[in-house]
Amino acid sequence: MTQTNNDFENKARPLAEKLIDYAKTNGEAYNITDVRISIYSSAEQENSIENGEVSESVSGTSWNVSVTLFSGGRSLTFQKNTLDEDMLCKAIDQNMKIIHIVPENDDKRLLESEKVYKGATVDLDLYDNNPPTQEELIDYAKKMEAAAFAESGVKTARESSISQTNSHNLMMSTNGLDYQGSRTMYQASISAIAEDDEGMQSDYDYSIARHFSDMAAPEEVGCNAGQNAVAQLNSSLPESKEISIILSQEAAQTFFSSVFSAIDGTEVHREATFLKDKVGQQVMSKGITIEDDPRIAKGISSQYIDSSGMESEKITFIKDGVLEGFNVGLTEARKLGIEPIGRNDGLTNSRVLPGRQSKEDLMSDITDGIYIKGFQGGSADVNSGRFSRQAYGTLIKDGKITDIALSGFAVGGNMKDMFMNVSLANDTPDLPHCRYTMAVPTIRIDGMKIAGK
Amino acid sequence: MNKKASDLGQFFENSDLTPEKLADIVTEGLADADFGEFYQEVVEQESLVKDKGVYTKVSSGNSTSGFGFRVGQGERIGYAHSDVFNEQSLLDTVKQARQVLQTNQLSAQPSPSGKVADELYSAENPMSEMDLVEKIAKIDEIEAHVKNLDSNITNVTLGYSSTATSVHVMTADGDSLVDSRPMTTLSISVMVTDEEGNNSEIGKALVGGRIGCADVFNKAAYEEAAQKALEQAKTLLIAEEAPAGIMDVVLSGGWPAVLLHEAVGHGLEGDFNRKDISVYSGKVGQQVAAPEVTIIEQGDLPGERGSLHFDDEGTPTQKNVLVENGILKGYIHDRQSAQLTQSGVTGNGRREGYEYLPMPRMTNTYFEAGNHDPEDIIKSVKDGLYISDMGGGQVDITSGKFNMVATLAYRIRDGKICEPVKGATLIGDGLSVIKSITMVGNDLKMERSAGMCGKNGQSVPVGCGQPTIRVSNMTIGGTK
Q1: Shortest CB distance from B201 goes to which of A193, A237, A384?
Q2: Closest-CA residue to A232 (of A395, A397, A405)
Q3: CB B200, CB B152: distance < 8 Å
Q4: Spatial distance between the Cα atoms of A310 and A308, rounded to a whole number of angstroms
Q5: Is B475 in contact with A412 (Cβ distance < 8 A)?
Q6: What pLDDT score was predicted for residue A38?
Q7: Which of B101, B257, B271, B402 has the smallest count of CB within 10 Å of its CB?
């Protein structure tokens, strides 16, 4: 159930052109000044394996057409999942008639046409032209499951699944934006359940890639899930105290997501982040540099233009701990009176540059600490800075990670302090990566409060 | 909710299919299945957001429609969906879904049992009571109202969204079930900054549920929510960091039942228990909770957030007693787990939309009222914590361990509610919590406005409720 780029183009382009023409022609009476059309199509196939056999097979296709009408500073959007031209034109008629009642918001206007990227298409290799067969996909999930089962202590596995998505996107608007792109995505994951006399523990692993050939080996994914679950058996609650923690790359991703929330344009404009007025200031420990590069070939979040039509290029948000700028979309940039940055749809491929120490050296002086494997829920409020997340991991004793499992505890602190107490290991992976969409190293944060027994 | 053919019309607009033709294809496609159904949806949606005095989102006239065909045999399920509803795409979808089947084994096809409840919520389109101009005027009115409540308010964010979901389910008997499900929400978020301008906190409150736009824009309703959001922000501003330790905890009625939903409800879902991977697996008939505890899962409550006339597999919803006087009575099922565990259907097969498979999900989950006066419950605690508002949370169903953040709590000293504290985390496992419930209040309160439940990447609205409850010796993670 896939379709080629040509199939999509043959359906989507004439439709977009017709809708724009219809809205412009009929919109004169309603003072329609601009029109934006976005057409998206995707085909998905997902297979799940249980006990070596396909247990669930889900497939489907979908279309989505989004139309935004502009009348000066007024704008009104609708979305429908149909390609029916009459139905879409009727919906345009309906919204044209009521657009005059929409309150004005000049910041939502289309990007000025001189800023719209009109250069050549940039091939970022996001479409897999050699897709696997159904059998190969099913085989991948079977191998994942078998590898998890092979770990001693694993009781069962569930949701050993792999999905394949093909998507196509066309954006066209009256400021000169005309973009079309196609992407493929493969996602596999498995959850393993280990059991001993004390009870059950579960953990998971996954892989993600634009090209099937770049996925992690299924045996590795299954084996990781199994080992992680077994490692958590016999876990206990640590004591409540203040200690240094080491965050695995997995957990560090969660931590850096909070850094990005704190510099998010919407929050900055609401003045709902403690970094709202800190551009140019030291907001994180020295040595921390965070880049966002949309031009990585095969990158999960790669793009050469954003949905406003602006060119997307590499940006450094935090350099040596100093905040260089906020992550703003077009509307937020205008509200804040700054130049848009080509990130209308949020971050792309973010990467924290590696530190100088090895992971081992990073923890060598911690006599009593915790290695956090992952966070599970909780909250991180970038307005007040309160950070409180449930975590699991293992004990660090005399500078080394032990196999003493800990779980069910919470890690608390205030991000205003946490950001200034981060040190990095030198193990940041390169992007694209078969597991990480945000590349971060193992990190250390001192002075964290552990809530346990 | 009814079976009148006239309601079916909207599903067949612009299609070459008729209800009769559809029934022929569906019954044939399901003839050799253990379970399965045709599921169709037409969804209309609109939303408005006003932030810092400016409309940042105005979206009107949104719609999606599509269908899926599901066929199940034992452990195997094939599912295919499409957004184009015509004979050719239906035949393709049936064929695609059936590829997963191994052999043509004939087996019994249990039909949905039970009687569909009378009207639990209105079939009217929830957006139609007011036009867009009136809704914008209401948002402006609410914003002005909130800003005038307190001079320390530094920002107000208002969001409105309404969805009308029309559902059409057909099982192997070829009968069409049709339902119109409204869902409307008004969210009010208030930021309060202290006199020095150094610290600020945000309070949030919602009005919503299976109701229409006139209900959420009702003056009394939004004024109450605005006051609640403001109070929450102001209290958080003066609240101290929560202490850590082991304490007696009193959970207030209503929304704090999200703890029950997470820590107990998920563990009682049939799919986990059929695979023997929940802490509650194999415990039916056993004393799992304190004798005061009775837990109900009920999808046929009038007006509640998680209520449905029938679930997304076409099974009528009903009242299911999960725990009675502390004894585990049963689990909640979709048709697959009911069949594989040879249990009765419970009306809990739910899905986010036509692109997804149904699975066992909660509807409205609550602790039944006990006989204690809530005042007496608070008085009984010497040194503890009163939880008045909870954030979200997460549970690991295999270990039963959970961790929930109490957005706002108060210290209880010598039976009295004292200073507010923030950042408290409730840590524990579901089984221990329901065993440690020592008092259950007589003030059962259901939450209708909040509650979205996520499972396997699918989100559905759920209701939860409880009276005031005392739990002894809970582990509290504080930040002090």
Answers
A1: A384
A2: A405
A3: no
A4: 6
A5: no
A6: 98
A7: B101
Dihedral angle computed from the Cα positions of residues B243, B249, B255 and B261, in that order, rounded to the nearest 10 degrees:
110
State the smallest CA–CA distance between residue B138 and chain A in angstroms.
Answer: 13
DSSP code at position A340: -
Q: Give residue B384's domain range.
A: 245-477
Residue A363 neighbours by CB distance under 10 Å: 22
Final residue of a structural domain among B238, B272, B294: B238
pLDDT per residue as tens digits for the range A11-52: 999 999 999 999 999 999 999 999 999 999 999 999 999 999
**Amino acid type, A97:** K
What architecture is the A134-165+185-231 domain classified under in CATH? 2-Layer Sandwich (3.30)
Q: Which residues of B, range 56-75, sit inside 8 Å of A by Cβ?
A: 56, 58-66, 68, 75
Residue range A54-78, pLDDT digits in tens: 999 999 999 999 999 999 999 999 9
CB contacts, 8 Å: B76 with chain A: 53-56
Residue B15 sits at φ, ψ, to 5 deg, of -120, 150
pLDDT band (50, 70, 90) for residue A3: low
Q: Which of B63, B245, B427 sits opposite A410 (nearest CB)?
A: B427
- Same-domain status, B193 and B82: yes
Is the domain A5-115 a CATH 3.90.340.10 member? no
B100 → chain A, closest CA residue: A57
The whole-angstrom separation of Cα B331 and Cα B326 is 14
Structure tokens at A264: 């998010």
For the beta carbon of residue B16, count every other beta carbon within 10 angstroms. 11
Identify the pLDDT of residue A1: 44
Look at residue A158 and tell me whether its pLDDT is greater than 90. no
